[in-house]
Amino acid sequence: MSLATKSRARRITSVLAAAVAALMLAGCGASNNSATSSTPTTVDGSLNKIVYKGDASKSPAKANQRDDTFVTTIGTPSGVFLPYFQDNGWDGNATQPIFNSLVVVDNSGNVKPDLAEKWDISSDGLTYTYHLRKGLKFSDGSPLTAKDVAFTLTLLNDPAYSGGADFTNIGIKGVDEYKNGNAKSISGIKVVDDQTITIETTKVNPLALQTLGGSVLSKAYYGKDYKKGKLDYLKDLYSKPMGDGPYQLSKYVDGQEIRYKANKYYYGGKPKIENLIFKVTSKDTALANFQNGETDDDSFTPDQDNLDQLKSFGFATIRESTVPDISEIWLNNKNDILKDKKVRQALVYGLDRQQIVDVQLKGFGQVANVYAAPTQWSYTEKGVPTYKYNADKAKKLLDEAGWREGSDGIRVKDGKKLTLRYLTSKSDDPVVPIATENYKAIGVNFQPEVLDGDTIIQRWTQGGDWDMVGGFRTNGLVDPDDAINEFYSTNTSVNLTGYDNAEVTKLAKEGIATQDKDKRKEIYAELYKKLGEDVPTILVSYRQSLSAWNARIKNAEDFSTGSGDSSQALAKLEITK
Known about the structure:
Its main location: membrane. The protein is of the alpha+beta class.
């Protein structure tokens, strides 16, 4: 799946859907002194580190009965099986087996061929030519051609489209004229022949290749009722996908499972495993389900006990990976209190993030200081403030910001108390007890509110009725822009913090205005320092994941649900019989 099939904005995924569940912090308080209370751990930037190889002969009987079915797991999809029109990250994962892209991006940020076997980029970096594989077909046997690619890009630039695909920083030539009604088609999109399409852009952007090269929708199927400015008809097709991937949807049971059948028209050949099941499970039952053979592949809460148990099964091949995401506490930068940089800096100094990481990730995580994951080529901590827990520094900053301690210990400024509301969807969010005690010690009245995810999203994205939001992680980060693009966006549905800094915007736009990787590294190194000083959000953690699969499944080391090239990896799985 191309990055374009996700939002180009840094979408957020609830910690309920993350691989790591927060653990209850009963009676666990933070120290009030300036010293760091815990020992830091280090997250290795390597991916797919096999720590134990399983023995297929020890596979449980229940799993062995499935000689034509692979069962993996998923969180809570909502049943929208149409790329570009999804708000739930799990829907994106559930759609990956059904739709291929022109190109895909692996977890290291490398672009790989998919439906397009090759591509050309003009010398000025503005025109992209994709050469499709010969004989491509959709799952109904109809041909997939460059006309379908043109239809897809036209649909995504329809004036009525409001989904996650964003071509603003690429600038397809002729889009504005098309949207304004001054042109019947987009002049920058040209079908050369059935296997070739060129797209002319107006802005140099290193992300354009993958952004333009996303999932392809059938014009005959998704476009038969298309009328410019009217896209509601597509809602009837959300549950009836017709794609070109290795599998096609067979059955969706809300809250239980998604079943797929192998697609005989898949360009790579029909997958050797006939049936695929995404089973909706919880972390509470993950180990038991895997041990008794209910599932073939899953992720587990990373801790030493789970690692030891998985090894004891004998049949599990176990992988530890660095997850390319970041846990953050979002701050409302338009808030009268939080718009002051010194207050934001004080909140980072005054929070024992290491203790949060220790309790939540139990040795499988690290305090985050950079707006990049350790897996990313741009990652560097050089010159970036680390904000090691220091209550004294936090107090000094609040003093400088004009917040004075009141008679009850809570700071006051202009007759207003320093009260901050923290929204979370987890009743056992480890931030709550630690921040409550830490912030009380520096004179902040920290008020947690535990709400359902939908309510949080509504308050977060509408009207600004929030101060701090926690319990969320970024989606998977590949390109450096993924983690920071919200901070220079003028779209309020993207820039949820309301952060605005001209210097950051300038650097961020420079970062996507060149194809030179070394130059981009220099730009992002400066950008990380500036964002570190400004603190638009509170960075909390990087994490390791712990996953395992039944050793009877061959080639599973390349598969990871949600990775950019997961559909290609799925197609290569085999069952040892």
